[in-house]
Design goal:
Structural class: mainly alpha
Strand content: under 5%
Order of helices and strands: HH
Largest sheet: none
Number of helices: 2
Radius of gyration: 32 Å
Length: 101
């Protein structure tokens, strides 16, 4: 699946930001690790949700494009049938005129 790396990337970026903030603020190692674990778990869950949403949106877009393509094909077929019917009608009219003369 194309979107399987989204949760990991989101989680790692959040973890990096958390580590930087803990170092800058001078938090003790125990507190920093607890905060890091909580952030990693939460943002992994958020990343999973984001990956599911992106996958769903892509699937819907692909389905919509497929439906539009089928609709266009159906319209093209309908136009071709109408043109053939018109050509047949013109032929019959011409043959009727020739028969009348």
């Amino acid at each position: 699946m194309k979107y399987r790396y989204i949760p990991s990337c989101v989680m790692l970026v959040a973890g990096l930001i958390t580590c930087i903030l803990c170092i800058v603020q001078g938090w003790p190692v125990d507190t920093s690790l607890v905060a890091l674990v909580i952030v990693l778990v939460l943002f992994y869950i958020i990343g999973q949700i984001a990956a599911q949403v992106v996958g769903k949106v892509q699937a819907d877009r692909i389905a919509m494009e497929e439906a539009e393509r089928k609709l266009e094909e159906e319209e093209a077929r309908r136009r071709e049938q109408e043109e053939e019917e018109q050509a047949e009608e013109e032929k019959t009219e011409q043959t009727e005129k020739e028969d009348d003369e």
